[in-house]
Amino acid sequence: MSQAIGYSTTPPAGSSRFSSTSLYSTSQNPSSSTINNNPNPNRRESARSSIVPIQQQLFGGSTVQQQGNVNILDRSLNKTKNAEIALSTWAFLFAEVISYSQSRSDSIADLEKRLSTLGYDVGQRILSLLLLRNTQTSNLKDPKREHRLIPILQFVHTQIYKYVFGKPADGLERSSEAEDEYMLLLNESPLSQFISVPKDMSDLSCESFTAGLVEGVLDGLEVPARVTAHWVGDQYPDYPQRTVILIKLDQKVMDREESLGK
Amino acid sequence: MTIHGLWVISKAGGLVFSRSYSDVLPPQPVNTILTLAGILHGIHAITAKLTPTPIPGVPVGGLESFEAEGWGGKVFLTPTGTKFVVLHSIPQTGLDELMKRIYEIYSDAVMKNPFHTPEMPINSSLFETKLQTLMSGVNA
């Protein structure tokens, strides 16, 4: 469900729509392909040719122009492997994301859903990137991808969290009440450590973004689940910002696990 | 050195935060503190105006500290015009570092909080807890 929302609300949807029309139009609907397909490459080319002179005007030098011509998709994927950005940069960006989402939502649940939708898209991208990099560094001929539930959850707990937050999650627990519920614990999240939620919105957890991210990753690994974030800091005086990411797995996953056996 | 209290004064001269960290100074009603902060803001503006040889390009700082019998105040002006005023006992040491720490906590807990409106009273539990930890460290 959130997948559909993710595609409809985010800006990159325009570019993906563009590629899908050009893919389908040749075989399925020839008449529309001539209308739809032609203007797009033209527009793209005209846009590119108009950008270059502006860059020349702005920057002058030839080196800058060469760099400017390298498309983001043509750059080396591993160049940014160990790159990090300042925490403040992220904090200010995330604060702005929250204010933006808040001004466009009418309830706390709606705001959490918006943050979760943004996180979902991030999760999908991170999963593809990490899997590709893991394959490149380990063995190109024998790519590895987890398919069982527990290794997948451990992959999220260790690798995904390590990549996103710089350290693994502080715990992965199975709920004692329900079999299909797992919990990822984080004592202090780098994402929302500067945020203090006002009292009248105490239900809100800005970690919904992380929840969406986890949901995106799990969905990409064919483990559909409903992921929510809950603040439990009031029960742990030592960790006032402790947050639980609750993963409620789809019945389908539980059935599959059972049929696969031990 | 004991820290008696902290005021945060906005660019426009309004008091956006005030806390007392000791019971040495007589407690004042909020309205009195608001007035005092406003007067301090005015004095700061006057002293900035009276600076005899301003360096071109460098913003003119005004009042930096004041002293009374047994206690004093230190004023820290951020580049954006927010003022932190610390009321402390005399003699005092390490106030400059303390000011930098307060500024750091302010930028972390207040400016990075999406639920804070600039120039409005600070209503952040994180800001208060972090300050409380800092001040109890200094006052201990």
Automatic annotation (TrEMBL), chain A:
One BP annotation, GO: endoplasmic reticulum to Golgi vesicle-mediated transport
Localization terms from the record: Endoplasmic reticulum; Golgi apparatus, cis-Golgi network
UniProt key word Transport: yes
Stretches for region Disordered: 1-49
Biased composition (Low complexity): 15-41
GO CC field: endoplasmic reticulum; TRAPPI protein complex; TRAPPII protein complex; TRAPPIII protein complex
InterPro entries referenced in this protein's UniProt entry, alphabetically: NO_sig/Golgi_transp_ligand-bd, TRAPP-I_su5, TRAPP_component
Domain of life: Eukaryota
Stretches with biased composition (Polar residues): 1-13
Keyword annotations from UniProtKB, A to Z: Endoplasmic reticulum, ER-Golgi transport, Golgi apparatus, Transport
Endoplasmic reticulum recorded as keyword: yes
Entry similarity comment: Belongs to the TRAPP small subunits family. BET3 subfamily.
Subunit: Part of the multisubunit TRAPP (transport protein particle) complex.
Name the record gives this protein: Trafficking protein particle complex subunit
Organism: Kwoniella mangroviensis CBS 10435
Taxonomic lineage of the native organism: Eukaryota, Fungi, Dikarya, Basidiomycota, Agaricomycotina
UniProtKB/TrEMBL annotation, chain B:
Record's keyword terms, sorted: Endoplasmic reticulum, ER-Golgi transport, Golgi apparatus, Transport
Annotated Pfam families: Sybindin (PF04099)
Main subcellular location: endoplasmic reticulum
InterPro entries associated with the record: Longin-like_dom_sf, TRAPPC
Gene3D superfamilies for this protein: 3.30.450.70
Subunit and interaction comment: Part of the multisubunit transport protein particle (TRAPP) complex.
Family under the similarity heading: Belongs to the TRAPP small subunits family. TRAPPC4 subfamily.
Protein name: Trafficking protein particle complex subunit
Lineage: Eukaryota, Fungi, Dikarya, Basidiomycota, Agaricomycotina
